[in-house]
């Protein structure tokens, strides 16, 4: 009988000795109790509500369809914008390369123009063929305006 009491003491405690859990014997409740009847009807209602919630009625399907179509349209528009941005970035790169090429050509042409003008030849033509001469010191007039820093073109030059 001591062994039987010892087994019951294992069942009544929360601590389990060893590495295997022993099966607990469920306590028997009489079948006709009002608590069990209430629990059974509540379980039946919960089960019925779950089944009803899992059913897809027409408004739910329509709402879900509209949501999917809107999401699909937004995704397609996003991909179109992304593609447009990528195309524009590529186009900007091409235009920048073309601009750099034109700048290089422009600089090369400017240098060739500057080097093609022979100043000695210009001086020779101006003095020999056109009869031009340098101005003497008494022919140069210096104009000093103290009222303002800039000179208006239509203003009269004072006489010396």
Overall number of strands: 0
Report, as a whole number of angstroms, the end-to-end distance.
146 Å
The biggest beta sheet is recorded as: none
Helix/strand-derived category reads mainly alpha
Tell me, briefly, the overall form.
rod-shaped
What is the number of helices? Answer: 4
Helix content: 55-70%
Q: Which value, in Å, is the CA radius of gyration? A: 52 Å
Low-confidence stretches: 1-10
Describe this structure in words.
The chain is mainly alpha-helical. 64% of the residues lie in helices and 0% in strands. It is built from 4 helices and no strands. It has helices at 2-12, 34-54, 58-116, 119-129. The N and C termini lie far apart (146 Å). Residues 1-10 have low confidence and may be disordered.
Topology:
Layout: H1 2-12, H2 34-54, H3 58-116, H4 119-129
Which descriptors would you attach to this protein?
160 residues; mainly alpha; 4 helices; 0% strand; rod-shaped; disordered N terminus
Short description:
With 160 residues, the protein is mainly α. The protein contains four helices and no strands. The N terminus is likely disordered.
